[in-house]
Amino acid sequence: MQASISRLCATTSAAGCFRSPRRQGSGYREYESDTVRMVRFIKRAQELGFTLSEIADLIRLCKNDRRRSAEVRALATAKLEDIELKIKQLGGMRQALQLLVEECACGGKAPACPIIEALDDSSEYLVTLKPARNRINVDI
Fold first, then answer.
1. Has residue 37 got a pLDDT over 70?
2. Cα separation of 35 and 6, whole Å?
3. Does the pLDDT at position 25 exceed 80?
4. Is-contact 114 104, C-beta < 8 A?
5. Tell me, what DSSP letter sits at residue 1?
6. Which of 15, 31, 87, 139 pairs with 42 at a CA distance of 20 to 30 A?
7. Model pLDDT for residues 78-94, shown as the tens digit of each residue
8. How do residues 53-81 score in pLDDT, each as one tens digit?
9. Torsion angles phi and psi, residue 29, rounded to 5
């Protein structure tokens, strides 16, 4: 965790989000309170699924006194839509795997495996992800 925070600090410092910290005689970095606040802001945004690029946009808006809350809302709404799409895709993946596991009634003794066969594109099983509909189809 500490390494990722150090990397995050180095990345955001290089991007101009805040100044590089000064080092104490012991070699430890000493961060200003604004820097600590910004790192916490970044970590919270990451926990909500925002990418570093999206976080950079949020930081620019945060620092802009003339920002419109509609811009921040638009970024959050877009992220929410991304998350909803991922949830739908994961649900489809879960359903496909569940069907394959149910189809596999071999008890681990038969060499034929419907799961392996479904993953092998030359098999009679077909597993496809259809992004347009956000679901996985399993034809067995």
1. yes
2. 12
3. yes
4. yes
5. -
6. 87
7. 999 999 999 999 999 89
8. 999 999 999 988 888 899 999 999 999 99
9. -85, 145
Residue-wise DSSP of 67-134: --HHHHHHHHHHHHHHHHHHHHHHHHHHHHHHHHHHH--STT--S--HHHHHHSTTSS-EEEEETTTT
CB of 59 closer than 8 Å to CB of 52: no
Instruction: List, as one string, the DSSP characters of 2-56.
Output: HHHHHHHHHHHHHTTSSPPPEEPTTS-EE--HHHHHHHHHHHHHHHTT--HHHHH
Phi-psi region of 107 (alpha: psi -120 to 50; beta: other; left: phi over 0): left
* pLDDT at residue 80 in the model: 97
Say if CB 17 and CB 59 are below 8 A apart: yes
In the three-class reduction of DSSP (H, G, I as helix; E, B as strand; rest coil), residue 137 is classed as strand
Strands 29-30 and 22-23: antiparallel
User: Kind and range of the H or E element at 135?
Assistant: strand 135-139
Q: Cα separation of 59 and 64, whole Å?
A: 9
Q: What is the pTM of this model?
A: 0.63
